[in-house]
Amino acid sequence: MKKNIVIILLLLIVTIQFTVSLSMAAENGIDDPLVTLSYIEKRFVEFKEYVDYKISDSGSENGKFEVLNIKAGNKVIFTSESLEFILRAGEASAIASANGGLANLTTGIDLKTGENVQLNNLILIPRNDGRGILANTDIWIMIKGQYEIR
To answer: How confident is the model over 32-57, as pLDDT tens digits?
Structure first.
C-alpha cells in the first residue's frame, strides 16, 4: 500500500513538472522561436556573397592565366601579391628580393637571384616587393596577377 502511494506521488510530481515546462514553452510560442527563418535566410545570403567574392578574387580580373611573349633581355617585375606564373618556353632567371626568392611550388624550392626558372613549374610570388624574372632568351609565360615589363 505504501508502495502504491509513493508511485502515485512520483507520477503526480512528474506530471506537474511536465505541465509546468509545457506552459513555459507555450509562453514563448511560435512568434519567438530560437532561430527564425529570416535569420537563416540572411546568413545564407551573406555566406553566398562571401563565396562569390572569394571565387572572383583570384589574382587577375577573370581568374585565368594570361599568356605573354617576352623578348630576351626584358624583365617581368611582379606587382601583386599571390601572383602565379609558369614558364612555358625559353630560359629565364629569378630576381629575388631581400624578403626571399620565388617559391617553386612544383619542386618545393626557393629560387634565388640568378637561378634558372624551370619549365612548366608553378611559381608563386607571395609579396609585392620587387621580385621578378629576367628573360635570358625569348620566353613564353602564363601569368595570373599584375606585372610590369621593363
So the answer is: 566 777 878 888 888 888 877 776 65
Domain boundaries in the chain?
66-149
pLDDT at 76 over 50: yes
Written as one string, the DSSP assignment of the chain is -HHHHHHHHHHHHHHHHHHHHHHHHHHHTTTS-SS-HHHHHHHHHHHHHHHHHHHH-SSSSSSSPEEEEE-TT-EEEE-STTEEEEEEES-EEEE-BTTB-EEETTTTEEEPTTPBPPTT-EEEE-S-SS-EEEESS-EEEEEES-EEE-
The model's pTM: 0.59
**Domain 66-149, second-level architecture:** Sandwich (2.60)
